[in-house]
Write a structure and sequence with these properties.
By secondary structure, the protein is of the alpha+beta class. The chain has a single domain, classed as Ybab, Chain: A, CATH 3.30.1310.10. It is about 55% helix and about 20% strand. Strand 2 and strand 3 (about 45-50) form a beta hairpin.
Amino acid sequence: MNIQAMMKQAQKLQKDMLNEKNQIDEKIFEGKSSFVTVKVKGTKEVVEIKIDAEKLEKDDIEMLQDMILVAINDANRQIDTLTEEKMGKYTKGMPGLF
């Protein structure tokens, strides 16, 4: 294979990787934990937190804080899983590149 063909193939691979990563970055992931729902972009930016106030009592603030953490971590795990699924074919088992 000549150098020019290899460069074209590398450029196509780079373009494909960026397209996949952009799709993940723009996707909204929804993490849930009891009465807390968190929406997080693929960039791991939290964009919305919803709390079902009807299920919350005044003494439950500490539990609410824990539920928010669980919901955010749930959404982040979804992002990591999808990123690994989509980008793993490019990194060939080298984690942490994206």
